[in-house]
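Repro:
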Amino acid sequence: MAALLAPTTLWFLVMLIMPLIVILIFSFGERAAVGGYGGGFTFEQYANLPARLKAFQNTLTYAPLGTLLSLLVAYPLAYFLALKVDRRFKLVLLVLVIVPFWTSLLIRTYAWIYILGGRGIPTILEWIGIEGVRLINTPTAVLIGIVYGYLPLMVFPVYVSLEKLDKSLLEASNDLGGNSFKTFLQITLPLSMPGIATGCMLVFILLMGEFLIPAFLGGGKVFFIGNAMVDLFLQSRNWPFGSAVAATLVVIMLITVSIYMRLAMRNKTGADQSLM
C-alpha cells in the first residue's frame, strides 16, 4: 500500500509542500541590494504587512462578493439545465457554457475592456438618454469580469448536484400539497448544497489569488493581493516581502475555507435530518 502511495506523496511534497516551505523561508529574510532574496532572519516583512492593507481589504471584500454573485447567476442557469431542459438539448447548452474556456481569459478580459469602455455599454446608454455612466476601471467592472470569467466553474458543480437529484422527491412534495417555492426551499436547495459548496470553494480560492481581472478592468484602482504579489516579485523584486504577503494569504485562505467547510457540513447535516 505504501509503495502505491509513494508516487502521489512524492508529487504532493515536491509540487505543493516544498514551494510553500521556500516561500515561508523567504518571508523571514531580507531583500538583497539588487533585489531578490538576501538571507537573514527577521520579522520585518510581517511588520510591514499594513502597507498592503488595502490589497487585503479589496481581496477579502470582492472575492466573497464575486463568489456570491457568481452563485446567484449560476444557480438559476444550472437549475434550468438540470431540471427544465429536454435531454436532447442539454449537451448543446452545456457545451455553450464551456465555450468561453476555449479562449484565453486574457483575450476575453480585453473584450470586456471594449464592452465596458467609452465605446461600449456607456455609448448605448447615452443613445437611450442615460449619460455620464462610467463602468471601466471601477469595482463594478471587476465584479462583472469575475462573474463572467468564473461562471462555468460555479455552474457545473451545481448542475451535477441537481442532475443527481431524485425526481421522485419533487413529485412526492407536489403530491403532498407543497407548492414550487416550498419544494425548492425544503428539497431542491438542501440537496444541491454539496454542489454549491464545491462551486463556491473553486471560485473563492481562485479569486483570492486573482490579478488579471483587477489589473485590466480595475485600472489599478481595485488592487488585489495577487496584484500586490506581482508588483513585489516582478517589479520591485522584494521577494521577502512578497513571500510574507503570500504566506499571510495562505493562512487567511486556510482559516476561511476551514470555517466555510465546517458551516457547509453543519448545514448539510441539518438538511439531511430535516428530510428524514
